Amino acid sequence: MIISVASGKGGTGKTLVATSLALSLKGGERVQLLDCDVEEPNAHVLLKPLITHSEAVCIPTPKVDEQKCSYCGKCAEVCAYHAIAVFPKNVLVFPQLCHGCGACSYLCPEKAISEEMRGIGVTESGYADGIEFAHGKLSIGEPMPTPVIRKVKELANHDSTVIIDVSPGTSCPVVESIKDSRFCLLVTEPTPFGLSDLVLAVETVRELKIPCGVVLNRAGVGDDKVEEYCRKENIPILLTIPLDMEIARLYSRGVTLVEGMPQWKESFLSLFERIQEMASERSRSLKR
Amino acid sequence: MKEVVVLSGKGGTGKTSIVGSFAALAKGVVLADCDVDAADLHLILQPVVQQGQEFWSGRVAAIDESKCTQCGLCQELCRFKAIRDFKVDYITCEGCGFCSHICPAEAITMKDNLSGHWFISDTRYGPLVHARLGIAQENSGKLVAVVRQQAKAIAEKRKLDYIISDGPPGIGCPVISSLSGANLALLITEPTLSGIHDLERVLGVCHHFGIPALACINKYDINEHNTRQIEQYCLSQGVEVAARIPFDSAVTEAMVAGLPVVEYSRNGVSHQIEVLWELVSKSLAK
To answer: Do B201 and A42 touch (CB under 8 A)?
Structure first.
C-alpha cells in the first residue's frame, strides 16, 4: 500500500509526519519511505540513512548530426517545447527546455537526430534505522523535477508499506508523486494560509480520486476554520499535533518526533489503522 | 525600477508574511505573487480584482474514436505512458504532440488547455498581480513568467520603483522562472537542519543564475546554535544576513486578522522586518 503525505502549503510538517509514521510502523510491517520532494528533500536530514545505491537520472535529449541535417526545420516544427531551433546553416538545442519526448529524432526525415542521455539529478537508496529509504535530488539549475520523481517511485518496494513524502504545491510534481497512492494524508496548520492551501490540495486529491484525511499540526495557533472546513467537506482529521516548542526544537535538531517523544508512537499507529480502514473502505465501495 | 524576489527553498519559512509587510512598508510598489500553485499573498493584501485573464498554455492530446484503428503506435511511442487502452490520460499527458504527428489514421489532435487564470488587482499598498494555476496543471513556470511580465509593465507604466515578488518553494521550474533577471533574491530561512539544507540548494540556484542574494533568519530563537551555523555559512558564501526575526505568535494573529504583521503589532518582529526592508531597499539601490 502506498500512502502519500502532501500539504499544499510548505512547512506544515509533511516530513515530520512521514518520518514518524514510517518509524512507528517498523517492527510490525515492512516499511519504506520515499522522499519525492526532489527539489528540497529533507527526510534524510531526520532519518540519516545509510545510502547503499545511487543512480543518475537522465533524460534523452537530441543530438543533431549536421553532416546529415538538411536544415528542413521539421524538428523545430514538431517540438512543443521550443527546445530546438533551426537556422539556414545551424541547429541549436536548448537541453533545459527538452522533455525528452523523442518526436524530433523519430520524425527527422534525414535521420540526423540521435539522442544522448543528459543527467538532471540522482536517486539514492539505502536503509535507515530498520526502514528502507530512497530519495531523489534534482540538480541545481534544472527545471524539471518530474523525471526524478518517476525514478524514485520506480524504487518502491510493493511488498512494503510505502510512505511518500511529497513536495508542497498542487502542480505537476505533486500529481506525479501522489498518483497511484491508496491514501493521501494532507498535513496542514490552523491558519488562513494553511486552510487556503488545504482546499487546493483537497481539490487535487479529489481530481485524482484518492481518499484523504487531514493531520492538523501546530493546533492552538490561528483559528478554527480548518476544522470547520473539514467538517463541512466530510474530511476526517486523523491526527492533531499541538503547537509545542519542544516539538519545534526537536525538529530543528533533526530529531524525529517519535524518537524524541516516544509517547507519540501510539498516535501514529492508530493513525495508520484509520488510514488502512479508510483505504479498504474505498476499495470495497469501488468494487460495488 | 528594481525587482526583489523572496525565496526560501523550504516552504513555510515566512516568505508571504514578510512580503505582505514589505507591501505596507515600501512606497511605490507592485506586488507579484509568483507562488501560482498555492498563492496566499491575497489573504493579507485583500485585493480588489480589476482585471482577470485566462491562461491558456500547453496542449493535451485527444483521440477521435471514430477514426482510431487501434493500431497501438501512439501507446508504443508515448514516453510518458499517457495513452492506455486508446484513451489519453490527460493528467499524465505532457502535451508533446508526438502521437498526433505519427498517428497513421490522423485520429489524434492536440487541444489547447486552459491551465489557469491571472489577475491584476488593487490593494491598499499598490497593484498586485496574482494567479491561480488550475488543479493538477503543468506550466507553472510559464504562468509565473506572465505574472512577472504584467508586474513589470505596470511598474513601467505607473513609474513605480519596486517590484516585490513572493516566490514559490523549491528550486525547480517556477523558482527559476521567478528568479531569472531579478535584481536581488531575499532568502528566508529558519534555524532547522532542513532549513539550512534547503537554503544551501536555493542559494546554489541564485549563484547558478548569477542573482545576488541576501538572507534572513526567521524564528531564529527556535535554535540559536543553528542560527549561528547559518550565519557562518552565509559568511563563507559572501551572503549578508540582513535580519534575524524572533518567533512570535503575532505573525499568525496578523494572518488571521488579514493584515501585514507590521500593521498589526509594534513588537520586535515588526521592528526587524522594518530593518530588513531598509537593507533590502538599500541593496536594490546599489
So the answer is: no
